[in-house]
Amino acid sequence: MIRNVLNIKIDDVSEDEALDKVTSYLKRSDPKKVRPFLIATVGPEFLLTAQKDKEFAKILNAASLSLPEGFGLQLYGGIKNRIPGRLFMIDLCREAAKNDWSIGLLGGWAGDGKKVVVKLRQMFPAIKISLVVDGDQATAIKNGFDLESTIKKPIDILFVGFGHPYQEKVLARSRDWFRVGVGVGGAIDYLAGRYPEPPKFLQSIGFEWLWRLVTQPRRLGRILKATFVFPIVLAFRALNTKY
To answer: pTM of the predicted model, to two decimals?
Structure first.
């Protein structure tokens, strides 16, 4: 079901439904004719950014899938489902290994890419990793350098971990170089072991943000936007609409 929150489209689907949409697309589309399928994993702070950044808002609304990631969307935005980006990334990697689809990794600190490759190959020995870009080279692409100079041929699934809105803008301008492109935020950092993953019980009750605050204090600003600013903006928007 498609919902609208602060004038941004959200695909309120389960993780299984989202995975089925992506795998069905990859299985039926011709690899020689690149038809990009862009996926955004959207949290409340995305919607706040999109209120001021019209280019970003346009990209989100044009995405093939805008998946609800943040707990605030469930609590305040009327969204039923929640799909953590890093878990969805692992699910896609599992499907890629099964179907001989290539993946690419773009983002992370210098050296993180190699760590993620090791991790993914431990999990899925058959996985085909065609591109790994991290550190300064990834930062250059984030800041506007063309991906074309780095990539040799289109990739089936490209994961970009720059955080919003950078990862979505990179994907939007690099559509010729992937079949499925996914903005995955900090998923690459987690897979590289840079930060400890939140306990499952915190994930299940929607308190993953608290774990992130403890382990990554620099995220305080983003967490405050998601947990406090977002519901206030929603409330004001509802009042303005009503009156």
So the answer is: 0.91
